[in-house]
Amino acid sequence: MEKSRWIRGPGFDLAFFIGPAWFTAAAAIAVGVYARARELEIPSLGPYGWLALVLLVDVAHVYSTLFRTYLDPKERAEHRGALLWIPIAAWAVGALIHSVDPALFWRVLTYVAVFHFVRQQYGFLALYGAKDGSGVTPLDRAAVYAATLYPLVYWHAHLPRDFVWFIAGDFATGLPPAVELLARIAALAIGAAWILEQFSVRRRIGRFSATKVLWIVGTALAWNVGIVVFNSDLLFTLTNVVAHGVPYLALVWITGRTGSERDPRRVLSVGAYRIRSGRFFTLSLVPVYLGVLFLLAYLEEGFWDVWIWRDHVALFPEFHRFLGDFRPGPALTAILVALLTLPQATHYVLDGFIWRIRRPQDWARGLIPE
Length: 370
Description:
Blueprint: H1 10-17, H2 19-37, H3 46-63, H4 73-78, H5 80-100, H6 102-132, H7 138-157, H8 177-205, H9 210-229, H10 233-262, E1 267-270, E2 273-276, H11 277-280, H12 286-309, H13 317-323, H14 330-340, H15 342-354, H16 360-367
Antiparallel strand pairs: 1-2
């Protein structure tokens, strides 16, 4: 397959864009099948699994948005109003909702996050359709949404599960089993029609749209294995977080690298400190890129643990040593929770601006020079 069918190239895409969903689904199947064959319980996520998957991937990927927004003078100038008012509005609205009903706050945030996760799968599909030249057909669109929405319907119809999105009770309950059955039939019908379309495409142009096929099938595997096939917080977190967070981290990095290739004068800036993007987005500084994100994620989760959750004390000993005696009341808790969720809430909303795809073929050509 020619390089032009890939966002960056076969090796990069298979490792960091397409691969994570396939690798994690395969790992989850291997663990789950082994446990069932030997009548063992699947291990729980545990503190170190939480550290590796939630903190170092899920929380860290949220902060990578900084490199596409607040640290990029060009993006700051283009989206000045959004970058100022979105965080302010998110904090104010979040604090207000939490002060009235904490459960409602988490439910709203959960469904915003779910929307963000689902839309990312479509966004990458649109990029691959643009790079492939085949676009996104109505059945492509239906297939990627069926691959993500059916598992969510199944989840709602089988509450409670052994895993949650944010906290227990954040999904609405009471979905009738008949709705899940209808959703399953619809998803299977869409999948069958989409498979037939791929063979029609093969006959018409002499090849499959391989990158789109890999993306949609990988999405279906990760979401269904993690949510439907197994009932495990470890396997759900593995498939959900890695398949979402790793492609996002890679996309931000490769976008920064490509931007510097197209405009060598492009810079990143923090206050008076400036560094050329071409110097930062290099292989030798990938550890710095990730290290900054890991540090920010660790600091955020430290404040979460000492002021709100207190469930990973051993991972944040210094936070509890110096701040552990402070107990916020309900009003201050609402303010703190809204503040601590601000990075992810802002990340969800800003994505609609920085990755907006009006014409995916132009966006894809701008991302990766032909």
